[in-house]
Amino acid sequence: MKSAQTNNQPIQISVINATTVLSDTQIQQAVGALQTQVSDHFAPVWGVDAKLTFVPQNTNPAPGTWWLAILDDSDQAGALGYHDLTNEGLPMGKVFAGTDLKLGSEWTVTASHELLEMLADPNINLTVFVQKDDTSGRLYAYEVCDACEDDSLAYMIGSTYVSDFVYPSWFEDFRTPNSTQFDRQGTIHRPLELVKGGYIGVFDVQTGNGWHQITAQNVHMQMRADVGSRRERRRTIRTQWMKSLDHAQIQRRGHEYRMRLSQIARGAAA
User: Fold this and answer.
1) Does the pTM of the predicted model rise above 0.85?
2) Which of 139, 169, 240, 245 shows a CA-CA span of 20 to 30 A to 251?
3) Is 50 a domain residue?
């Protein structure tokens, strides 16, 4: 796979606080751990490094950067204007921190997950073809955290939980069990193995039934991904992807969004 970097320079990524459920301080503290994971753990294995810059509320990200937007939920993403790409047509990831908190999940694990997968497959179009015979085979989505994404498999950097991730060897079906390291934490022991809470998107080229999800329990299901997620975008025709709004417009919408939330809260308290 060709690296997403050019001239060995780290990719510039803006980590944007656009959520109402976390403070600037909370997110900024997590950014340091995410930077350590990317540069010290991920880049030596995958050959892709990034420089993360925190963008507080009501501040514009630098031009030419990729975005990792910290949001409440998928509804807020659409309401504010965070779509499939940045306003410049560059890669972006979305972290629905409000949804995570409601479900009791670690939002930092989700942020780590989205960040690493954006670095490994920024255009959400890479796959690995595994052919078992002359007439059948599967395309596996090039997602580097899905197989081991469960919060229970996360590890800590300082006081911040981050996601486990697979190594390139996970996609190499010629590997024999326990012959090499397949993920950061060592919980996976063979190629294409899914561990607790893990899943992966596959496309069966023989049936042509589109993208399906395989879980660690060997359950096959049609993917019904959250709006704006990587899985949804993988299933969406690339020409239908939408650029995000200019960030000044997003900030205006964000102000209006927070005002509406305040009005609702006052109404509920009355």
Assistant:
1) yes
2) 240
3) yes
